[in-house]
Specification:
Low-confidence stretches: 1-20
Bound molecules: 4-O-methyl-alpha-D-glucopyranuronic acid
Distance between the termini: 45 Å
Shape: globular
Structural class: alpha/beta
Length: 839
């Protein structure tokens, strides 16, 4: 007891070191001691003080950050001085203030608004370090860059650099609702709102703003684009002021999403027609009011005429009319409006083969090029559909010459595994950003178009939907690499995926070469693996499209108005988007790109089914038929998900235990769910096409015992919907008296060590308990309490529990006992037994 108490007291008195609390909260800003002694010693002569020229909140934040980072990584506590005294120092200041301090340090080059320089200089005869920029925010970015260099183990001789961000807009969007929920958020409740108000304690928002600043993000919209009108009411604006204050310290401008009908709904006008004088006046008065309260307010994000949101079509007006009426209200205050290009009709007639949602952004907006005011930014999703695992770059990027544009990416993994699956998206984003749209001859990649380089605009850039939540790790321990990656790419899209993953790994875990190599490889393999076991050849999503967007539900995208059709039937699959026979979508690209996509001969395989409807027997460049490709990739992808587990296990002991276990659990879950995907998709296509798998895997499951074939006590057999979500399309559910059921069968194969997989359904409306017995001996028990997005037995809830290395003898009875809870009937799909040696 005595020891316990003293240990407790000690832990209360000692400041928590970042290494102690490895929950992921510090993300890449852990500032743990640099272990490489050579790097460390190179900083022995580092100045002992900081001289900050200026005392704005941003400069103060920069100074505090430098003290914190250097103390953590190098064990030195820097003194903070107002002006340099007669010693070596680290000077933080704008170019103007540096020039005033010592004209010999004058830098005549251009750093843009947010660029910075880090230089070792001599000041009053003392070796010093200069971190300078055109603006205070640039100085802050310079400090973070310096700390990143130290964190990455660069010696002091390699710290000098000058950097200018690729584009002025580097922004995050959030789809947070005022009640604290987040649309498509997978990491807990909103950090901004609760119970229809801004949160009282903004410390988490402050920490988030710091994370944003550390990767150069300078703008953030905090509420759902499916906007609540209340967000710009006078009463709510006073709450937003508090968020803006917190953001301001870190150089982040606050934006909010608005509802286009606001003049009518909250303004009391009879109309929201953008050409109505009263409406224009209302927006102007509203903007003036906002800027009186928040002078550095960024502006608005607007989703109009999309998915039921009201827009200018209500009055027969154009999107330019809608954007401009608001832009003109913001203009005197230097505000921007991000007008979303995600405009489409979700009630399209699926029977009409000429209908095509992919056409919508271009069809709605291209003809308006040149008619948007210069403080309008058209925010265009990276692909023409909606953040699918594989899409071509939106043709709209190449079709706007006189309009500011920004690319919209998605960090929150709506269609890419919802953070339960590892899916590092930087390689996917880079494919889009590097894609040459041939908008002015060749050499016009998307990154140049959106940054304004190609057609000489000044106001474009990068936006991503972040949706961090209150989970300790913000997005997930490995998933947060996507946030880091977005920030780094928005700053410099020419960084490689490997560079970004390596930086993130070193700072988020450590620099042990085995750790770096393993985690970087895992990250880089994760998107290709996810694509393999989910969506083939650009066909579009095979998930449940109506609602959850997570597990497989192959037919859900068909026969409805949402337009995410893959048109798979008995004979073939894919959307015919050609000009010759299809929807004409390929014609939205400029000549050479259009020609490449138009022909199945030249269309890249990975987008073949996005552009063409083809028979399952069509032979790909690989020499395989489409159907065999579907089988093969699904088996390969699921196996790659298994390998992720093994890769992670190879660094046990080299990363902290807390994060190791949490990541391991997630990867094991993912491997099980990848198999759900594999089986559902392969079974569906096997049944639909009638073409067998040449490798005889699809439809045959060695070692599998269906739950419905076991001896059941209290369990009842039920059909599962959709049929491919369960093996044999059936499962068992406990309805037995006393709330306890069992399913058993004899083990019939030879004695040995086996891995036993129990496939069950972990619904979100209960926490059933399971026990597994081998000839009466308890070998495993668990509670099905994962939070998965469904209250049904389906492919979202289907989950694998693996019991490894179980010794089994012939005639051993394997029995599972299930105890239901809430609405969840301890449901089981099957058990699969494999020799442990096989794995
Ligand atoms: C916020 C998709 C998502 C919606 C999202 C919409 C959008 O349809 O499923 O949740 O709405 O995109 O980007 O506006």
């Amino acid at each position: 007891m005595k020891y316990l108490l003293s240990g407790l007291l000690l832990s209360m008195l000692l400041p928590a070191s970042p290494a102690a609390a490895e929950t992921g909260y510090s993300a890449w800003l852990r500032y743990v001691p640099i272990e490489n002694q050579i790097t460390r010693r190179s900083y022995d002569g580092m100045p002992a003080s900081i001289s900050a020229l200026g005392n704005s909140a941003v400069i103060q934040a920069a100074q505090r950050e430098l003290v914190l980072g250097v103390r953590g990584m190098l064990g030195k506590t820097l003194r903070t001085e107002g002006r340099p005294s007669n010693e070596s120092t680290i000077i933080l200041g704008t170019l103007d203030s540096v020039n005033q301090l010592d004209p010999t340090l004058f830098f005549s080059g251009n750093l843009g608004d947010d660029g910075y320089l880090i230089e070792r200089v001599t000041l009053n005869g003392h070796p010093s370090i200069l971190v300078a920029a055109a603006s205070d925010r640039g100085v802050l970015y310079g400090v973070f860059a310096l700390l990143r260099k130290i964190g990455l183990g660069k010696p002091i001789s390699e710290i000098d650099e000058r950097q200018i961000p690729f584009a002025p807009i580097r922004m995050l969007n959030h789809w947070d609702n005022l009640d604290g929920t987040i649309e498509r958020g997978y990491a807990g409740a909103s950090i901004f709102f609760e119970k229809n108000n801004v949160v009282t304690d903004l410390s988490r928002v402050r920490d988030y703003a710091r994370l944003m600043a550390s990767v150069g993000i300078n703008a953030c919209s905090i509420n759902n684009v499916n906007a609540n009108t209340r967000v710009i009411t006078t009463e709510f604006l006073t709450q937003l002021v508090r968020v803006a204050e917190v953001f301001r310290d870190w150089g982040v401008r606050l934006f909010v999403s608005i509802d286009f009908s606001s003049p009518q709904k909250i303004g009391g006008l009879g109309t929201f027609d953008p050409l109505d004088q009263g409406v224009a006046k209302w927006w102007k008065t509203k903007a003036d009011e906002i800027y009186r309260l928040i002078p550095d307010f960024g502006g608005f994000v607007l989703k109009a005429d999309s998915e039921g949101r009201l827009g200018p079509s209500a009055y027969g007006r154009t999107h330019a009319d809608a954007a401009n009426v608001i832009a003109r209200a913001l203009k005197p205050h230097s505000g921007l409006i991000f007008y979303r290009g995600f405009v489409y009709d979700h009630h399209m007639d699926w029977r009409n083969l000429k209908n095509d949602r992919a056409r919508a952004a271009y069809d709605n907006l291209q003809s308006l090029d040149g008619r948007f005011d210069d403080n309008v930014v058209l925010q265009i999703k990276h692909g023409p559909i909606d953040f699918q695992v594989r899409e071509p770059a939106s043709p709209l990027f190449g079709a706007l010459e006189r309009t500011n544009q920004a690319i919209e990416l998605q960090i929150t993994q709506e269609y890419t595994g919802q953070q339960r699956h590892l899916c590092f998206l930087v390689p996917m984003w880079k494919e889009v950003l590097d894609f040459d749209m041939q908008a002015k001859g060749s050499g016009t990649p998307v990154k140049d178009l959106v940054s304004g380089r190609t057609f000489n605009h000044s106001g474009g850039g990068f936006v991503a939907v972040s949706n961090v939540g209150r989970d300790q790790s913000w997005l997930g321990l490995l998933a947060i690499a996507n946030l880091y990656g977005f920030g780094r790419l928005a700053w410099n899209p020419n960084l490689t995926s490997w560079q970004i993953a390596e930086e993130w790994t070193r700072m988020s875990f450590n620099g042990d070469p085995r750790v770096v190599k393993t985690i970087v490889q895992m990250q880089l393999r994760s998107w290709p693996a996810y694509e393999k076991y989910t969506g083939p050849l650009g066909a579009g999503t095979l998930t449940d499209i109506i609602n959850i967007h997570y597990g497989p539900a192959v037919e859900s995208s068909e026969r409805n108005g949402w337009g995410q059709w893959h048109r798979a039937d008995e004979r073939g699959i894919g959307m015919d988007r050609t000009m010759a026979t299809g929807t004409g979508f390929t014609g939205q690209y400029r000549g050479p790109v259009a020609r490449m996509y138009e022909s199945a001969e030249t269309c890249p395989d990975e987008l073949l089914l996005f552009m063409h409807h083809l028979p399952y027997t069509h032979v790909l460049r690989s020499g395989k038929t489409i159907i065999q490709h579907i089988y093969d990739t699904h088996y390969e992808g699921a196996e790659e998900a298994n390998q992720l587990v093994r890769q992670w296990e190879s660094i046990k002991g080299l990363v902290d235990a807390q994060r190791y276990e949490e990541v391991l659990n997630r990867l094991e879950y993912q491997a099980g769910h990848a198999q759900v995907w594999r089986d559902a998709v392969c079974n569906w296509f096997l049944r639909m096409s009638g073409i067998p798998d040449l490798k005889k895997r699809a439809g045959t499951f060695p070692g599998r015992v269906e739950a419905e074939s076991m001896k059941l006590e209290g369990y009842q057999i039920e059909e599962v919907q959709p049929w491919e979500a369960a093996s044999g399309s059936k499962a068992i559910k406990c309805i037995g008296p006393g709330g306890r059921c069992s399913a058993s069968f004899p083990h019939t194969v030879k004695p040995g060590r086996y891995d036993v997989d129990i496939q069950y359904f972990d619904q979100n409306n209960g926490a059933s308990r399971f026990k597994v017995f081998v000839s009466g001996r308890l070998v495993a028990e668990w509670v099905a309490d994962n939070v998965l997005p469904t209250n049904k037995m389906d492919a979202h809830s289907s989950t694998r529990r693996r019991i490894r290395g179980l010794t089994l003898r012939p005639r051993d009875e394997i029995r599972i006992e299930g105890v239901p809870n809430g609405g969840e009937g301890a449901p089981i799909d099957y058990i699969e037994i494999h020799s442990s040696r096989r794995r």
